[in-house]
């Protein structure tokens, strides 16, 4: 078979969730909440279905939802996107990311990817015929940081796109204003585009501010900005997200979008559009998850795990070198089968499988789930 992704296997998230379920382990691996979304959100969707919103929506997304997204971006980041020409609703962030890559990367062009990186980026670049250029984050006292000098050094005349992700999966780090300024300096005067994965935009802790590229006109003018309702509203299974980009980029995005999904399910778009009028759910999210983060971190303080900083996302990375010298995937497997708590090896987020003795736990769980996991982990 002469196929496109011969080296790609099943994602680590599917594998670890299957292993967790096989061994009845508490699943802190794959990132998804184990609690229900707000009942009001379900009421909005139910009302939309009963009102007859059940046929194909516009290819670009239900207008009311695009308007609501534009209003939110304006309210939160002070950036103005035209809902008709600069916002498209997608089947989750994953489809937005792949579509953005496919619409702008030509065969042989380079895409700079900061590792560890979310696992969908590399296969999407490969499908486009692009060449991934990985640059590793550095891990120091402050946790993971992006070495902008090495990003600058990785730029060549063939660089088409730089992918950034803040808050960052899996490390839980966030980009600060100085990072965005460094990125601006790198791309100024070039025709390099930016793909900014901001699915955890509303999960930033300790009073920090989410540095969306939307806040920086010089960057926003060359960026696809991606988010996901799955993360913000605790409905990862709905697979609805969006992309915001200047009209010229969005026109190209839509050419691909219309032929890989055409459009995204109608009733949920209507439900989200009316539900979004209330900012409370995303405004309250940092406090909601910060409390869970702290519960989880406090529970591990007496253990031999070393906690890395967790400034954003719903992930906590830990070093386990004081417990075991084994490879990350073996350690995550052992945690799942023997300790009965599933985790994700951070090595799965590197193209070359770099080993740092670190695994990722997801704390988007009921307190009782976290307590049960902590009972098992705190003994290690
Ligand atoms: N990007 C990152 C960094 C993610 O963690 C996720 C969630 N797994 C996605 C994109 C995909 O989001 P969605 O489920 O909306 O496709
Ligand atoms: N984004 C989720 C995570 O990092 C998983 C999404 C998926 O299963 N593809 O755990």
What can you tell me about this protein's structure?
The protein folds into 2 domains: 12-30 and 284-377, Aspartate Aminotransferase, domain 1 (Alpha-Beta Complex); 39-278, 3-Layer(aba) Sandwich (Aspartate Aminotransferase, domain 2). The chain has 380 residues and is an alpha/beta fold. The protein is built from 15 helices and 15 strands. The strands form 4 sheets. Strands 2-10-9-8-7-3-4 form a 7-stranded mixed sheet, sandwiched between helices. It has a 4-stranded antiparallel sheet with strand order 11-12-15-14. The chain is globular, with a radius of gyration of 20 Å. It has helices at 12-22, 39-50, 63-77, 92-104, 121-127, 148-154, 177-187, 217-220, 229-232, 247-260, 266-275, 280-283, 285-300, 328-339, 367-377; strands at residues 26-27, 87-90, 110-115, 131-136, 138-140, 143-145, 159-165, 193-197, 223-228, 241-244, 306-307, 315-319, 341-342, 344-345, 358-362. Helix 4 runs parallel beside helix 5, helix 4 packs across helix 10 (247-260) and helix 13 (285-300) runs parallel beside helix 15. The protein binds 4'-deoxy-4'-aminopyridoxal-5'-phosphate (PMP) and glutamine. Glutamine (GLN) binds next to loops. Residues 31, 92-94, 118, 165, 169, 197, 199, 228, 230, 236, 239, 241 line the site of 4'-deoxy-4'-aminopyridoxal-5'-phosphate. InterPro entries: Aminotransferase_I/II_large, Kynurenine-oxoglutarate_AT, PyrdxlP-dep_Trfase, PyrdxlP-dep_Trfase_major, PyrdxlP-dep_Trfase_small. Its cofactor is pyridoxal 5'-phosphate. One of its GO terms (cellular component) is cytoplasm. Belongs to the class-I pyridoxal-phosphate-dependent aminotransferase family.
């Amino acid at each position: 078979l002469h196929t496109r992704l011969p080296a790609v296997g099943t994602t680590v998230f599917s594998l670890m969730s299957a292993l967790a379920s096989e061994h009845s382990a508490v699943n802190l691996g794959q990132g998804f909440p184990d609690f229900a979304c707000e009942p009001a959100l379900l009421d909005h969707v139910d009302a939309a279905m009963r009102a007859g919103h059940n046929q194909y929506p516009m290819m670009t997304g239900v207008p009311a939802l695009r308007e609501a997204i534009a209003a939110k971006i304006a309210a939160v980041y002070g950036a103005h996107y035209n809902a008709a020409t600069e916002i498209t609703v997608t089947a989750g962030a994953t489809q937005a990311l792949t579509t953005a890559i496919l619409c702008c990367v030509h065969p042989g062009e380079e895409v700079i990817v900061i590792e560890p990186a979310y696992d969908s980026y590399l296969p999407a670049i490969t499908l486009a015929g692009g060449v991934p250029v990985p640059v590793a984050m550095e891990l120091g006292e402050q946790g993971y940081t992006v070495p902008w000098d090495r990003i600058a050094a990785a730029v060549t005349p063939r660089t088409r796109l730089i992918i950034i992700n803040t808050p960052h999966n899996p490390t839980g780090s966030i980009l600060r204003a100085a990072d965005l300024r460094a990125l601006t300096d790198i791309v100024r005067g070039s025709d390099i585009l930016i793909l900014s994965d901001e699915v955890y935009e509303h999960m930033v802790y300790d009073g920090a501010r989410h540095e969306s590229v939307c806040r920086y006109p010089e960057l926003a003018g060359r960026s696809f900005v991606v988010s996901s309702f799955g993360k913000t509203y605790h409905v990862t299974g709905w697979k609805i997200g969006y992309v915001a980009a200047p009209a010229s980029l969005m026109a190209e995005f839509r050419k691909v979008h219309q032929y890989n999904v055409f459009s995204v399910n109608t009733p949920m778009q209507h439900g989200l559009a009316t539900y979004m009028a209330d900012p409370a759910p995303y405004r309250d999210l940092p406090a909601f998850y910060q409390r869970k983060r702290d519960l989880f971190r406090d529970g591990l303080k007496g253990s031999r795990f070393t906690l890395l900083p967790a400034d954003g996302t719903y992930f906590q990375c830990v070093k386990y070198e004081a417990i075991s010298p084994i490879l990350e995937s073996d350690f995550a497997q052992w945690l799942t089968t023997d300790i009965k708590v599933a985790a994700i090896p951070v090595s799965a987020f590197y193209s070359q499988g770099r080993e740092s003795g670190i695994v990722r736990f997801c704390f988007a769980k009921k307190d009782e789930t976290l307590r049960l996991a902590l009972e098992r982990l705190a003994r290690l």
